[in-house]
UniProtKB/TrEMBL annotation:
Residues 447-469 are annotated as: Disordered. Its cofactor is adenosylcob(III)alamin. Residues 128-454 form the Methylmalonyl-CoA mutase alpha/beta chain catalytic domain. InterPro entries: Cbl-dep_enz_cat (IPR016176), Me-malonyl-CoA_mutase_sm_su_N (IPR024067), MeMalonylCoA_mutase_a/b_cat (IPR006099), MeMalonylCoA_mutase_a/b_site (IPR058549). Keywords: Cobalamin, Cobalt, Isomerase. Its EC number is 5.4.99.2. This is methylmalonyl-CoA mutase. PROSITE patterns: METMALONYL_COA_MUTASE (PS00544).
């Protein structure tokens, strides 16, 4: 660390340095006021947040936090980036994804900010025979193309290489990737593929096309099956190692084999975890290259994709905010290429407006926010460095467990990886159900009157292997039941909010209850009497003091008026109350049971 000379201009020069212990004592005082007695490290632990993979986010990070030296950008262990200059010359590669032949979509992307293409070809995408049509008008010497063709990779690669030749593109100028990923395809479909054609493509690229990579290590199947960040990294590491073994056995040198791999990761709206994940991935791959005897070949090439798991079908406009944060994190984390999935991605084929917003997300961050003008902008943050280290350790342990069980192919075929991911997703589902992990527009602040966004159905992706999960799936099922009830009866199921006292007494809990029940498609009614509301159930909303006085009599009067179930917003033990709803309750369970009682199937 460089020590700056004391120039007498420090604004804090006249104040004594605060110690960590002084800060802990202040925390103790705050906790004491809330009725919790903790001291020292325990006080700090009380403010910590537990993440997946056994990680914990502490409330304060200082210079005493230890983490390995991240090195320099472009040098092992590549934590700070695979290239010395990072993305400061042109930002990251804005890679747009296409799964169907949509009129002018490909050219519109390239003419308005996109810098490369990611084409899903074959099963679940553009037919191999239409690849020429998809690239009609594209300057292939300027726009790199990355294929995603699954079991049709060999045929799609041949078709693409013929196009390069037909258009007179010099082999030295070809850029992009052929997207071969047999283990990724097996993860998606459960169908194993022979590696020999992929090894032949890699050898051909190494000999003839120095700017073209034959293989992609796609970690999205594990992320989309509910895996944690460490599981995603560990699975990608095991896949990469498996490919290195196959390629070197086929006759490629370790440096040649490593140069044929590009890694694809999910970028989520948890910006710091995404930044740490990309940095940790580079450190882990550098370690693999070091063990293989080629430390200089350890610079991992990364393609980040905004997470499909976080995308919602209800209130899809909020997806723009999620993808913006994820794109920022991917850029700060050092990804060479970033794909922003359009906000209507989960609804079908994106329209022109959605594709434009997706392109512009990267363009604004690069050109207006100048996000790429600083190499590794998160580097040096005690929190980011510590999180990077802890995540790398957790991922390495998962990778080692996969290797002990025979490698990535073995754990896919034994079902072990499915079990691991399902366990992680089950724990996360509990947090989602209890709204500990809120979903804006779905579990928080839903809008029942919102008109659904409709899109042309997209091609069905390959399936049969690991499941694809989404954060909104439990709430989507509840909302679908409400929609069906609305279509059949002309009205949504309703619940009456019985407010007690003044607005100051009931507003907070009435707002909470309204949001909770709307998340399940149940319309809250606040005006008029219970008899006129059309509801069969009610929820009391007020302060604890007024509950003590009036909860029992109010519940009795509601029941006399025909209420079959009386909730109370809050905790306690009051006469006449059937159930309580409160922050941290299992919202999905409450809502599902309520719809059952209301006869909403």
């Amino acid at each position: 660390m460089t020590v700056l000379p004391d120039d007498g201009l420090s604004l804090a020069a006249e104040f004594p340095d605060a110690t960590h212990e002084q800060w802990q004592r202040l925390v103790e005082g705050v906790l004491r006021k809330s009725g919790k007695e903790h001291s020292g490290e325990a006080a700090e632990d009380a403010l910590s947040t537990t993440l997946e993979d056994g990680l914990r986010t502490r409330p304060l990070y200082t210079a005493r936090e230890s983490a390995p030296d991240p090195g320099l950008p472009g040098f092992a262990p590549f934590v700070r980036g695979s290239r010395p200059a990072g993305g400061i010359t042109s930002g990251w590669d804005v890679r747009q994804r296409h799964t169907a032949l949509t009129e002018d979509a490909v050219l519109a992307d390239l003419e308005n900010g996109g810098t490369s293409l990611w084409l899903v070809v074959g099963e679940g995408g553009i037919p191999v025979s239409d690849l020429g049509r998809a690239l009609d008008g594209v300057y292939l010497d300027l726009a790199p193309v990355v294929l995603d063709a699954g079991r049709d990779t060999e045929q799609a690669a041949e078709a693409l290489l013929r196009l390069y030749a037909a258009k007179g593109v010099d082999a030295e100028a070809v850029r992009g990737g052929l997207g071969g990923d047999p283990l990724g395809y097996e993860a998606r479909t459960g169908t194993p593929l022979d590696f020999a054609p992929y090894a032949a493509l890699a050898a051909r690229c190494a000999e003839q096309y120095p700017g073209l990579r034959a293989l992609t290590v796609d970690a999205l199947p594990y992320h989309e099956a509910g895996g944690s960040a460490a599981q995603e990294l560990g699975a990608s590491l095991a896949t990469g190692v498996a490919y290195l073994r196959e390629l070197t056995e086929a006759g490629l040198g370790i440096e040649q084999a490593a140069a044929q791999l590009e890694f694809r990761y999910a970028a989520t709206a948890d910006q710091f975890l995404t930044i740490a994940k990309l940095r940790a991935a580079r450190r882990l791959w550098a370690r693999v290259a070091e063990v293989c005897g080629a430390p200089a070949a350890g610079g991992q090439v990364q393609h980040a994709v905004t997470s499909p798991v976080m995308m919602t079908r209800r209130d899809p406009w909020v997806n723009m905010l999620r993808t913006t944060v994820a794109t920022l994190a991917a850029g700060v984390g050092g990804a060479e290429a970033v794909t922003v999935l359009p906000f209507d991605h989960v609804l079908g084929l994106p329209d022109a407006f959605a594709r434009r917003i997706a392109r512009n997300t990267s363009s604004i961050l690069i050109e207006e926010s100048h996000l790429a003008r600083v190499i590794d902008p998160a580097g040096g943050s005690w929190y980011v460095e510590r999180l990077t280290d802890e995540l790398a350790e957790a991922a390495w342990q998962f990778f080692r467990s996969v290797e002990r069980d025979g490698g990535q192919a073995a754990v896919l075929r034994s079902g072990r990886i499915r079990t691991d991911l399902a366990t992680t997703w089950a724990e996360r589902s509990k947090r989602l159900a209890k709204r500990r992990e809120p979903i804006t527009g779905v579990s928080e602040f839903p809008l029942l009157a919102e008109k659904p966004v409709e899109r042309t159905p997209a091609p069905e992706p390959p399936s049969g292997g690991l499941p694809r999960v989404r954060r909104d799936e439990a709430y989507e099922e509840l909302r679908a039941r409400s929609d069906a009830h609305l279509a059949a009866t002309g009205a949504r199921p309703r619940i009456y909010l019985a407010t007690i006292g003044s607005p100051a007494a009931y507003t907070a809990r009435a707002t909470f209850a309204a949001n909770l029940f709307q998340a399940g498609g149940i319309e809250p009614v606040t005006e008029g009497s219970f008899e006129d509301s059309g509801a069969t159930e009610a929820v009391l909303c007020s302060s604890d003091a007024l509950y003590a006085e009036q909860a029992g009599p109010t519940a009795e009067s509601l029941r006399a008026a025909g209420a079959r179930q009386v909730f109370l917003a809050g905790r306690g033990d009051y006469p006449g109350i059937d159930s309580y709803v409160f922050a941290g309750c299992d919202a999905v369970d409450v809502l599902s049971a309520t719809l059952d009682r209301m006869g909403v199937s």
